[in-house]
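JOB MANIFEST
job_type = single_chain_structure
chain_count = 1
residues = 160
[input]
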Amino acid sequence: MTTHDLDPTACLLAERSCERLVLELVRRLDLGDPRTVCDLFTPDGVWEWPYDGRRIEGREALRAYFGSRPADRLSRRMCTNILVTVDSPDTASATTYFATYRVDGYTEGAPIPPRLPANIGHYEDTFRKVDGVWLIATRTLVLPFGAPKERLNATVPQSV
């Protein structure tokens, strides 16, 4: 089956569902509860960063990983150029470009001075429909531009 064999409306709905997963993941990391990011993945979902060999597999491992995010981290991810390709009625893939603004050591209150992005890269995602719901099957982080994690009021930045 090719994408040309898919119903155009079903294809559009699949594309939109996958785009929303990308955006919802970012919202949960930046403004929501990072521990719930795992709910956007398939039960055997994978998040990986080949640069340093990091690979987190399965919902419980993803919950622990994203739940360990420092409580004093302030971040905003800007995602753009989300290009979803529907491969079949139950599978799709996407590439999303991003820039992450991030500091650790943040306390609620006055805004901090603007900074350059801490990371710029793209995500390569695969999606799978499970029981009628689109979920992320794999997310691979490609990071050509990265910097050490900055800590407010710290003399030495943390490693990436």
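[summary]
Confidence is low (pLDDT under 50) at residues 155-160.
The CA atoms of residues 48 and 54 lie 5 Å apart.
exit_status = 0
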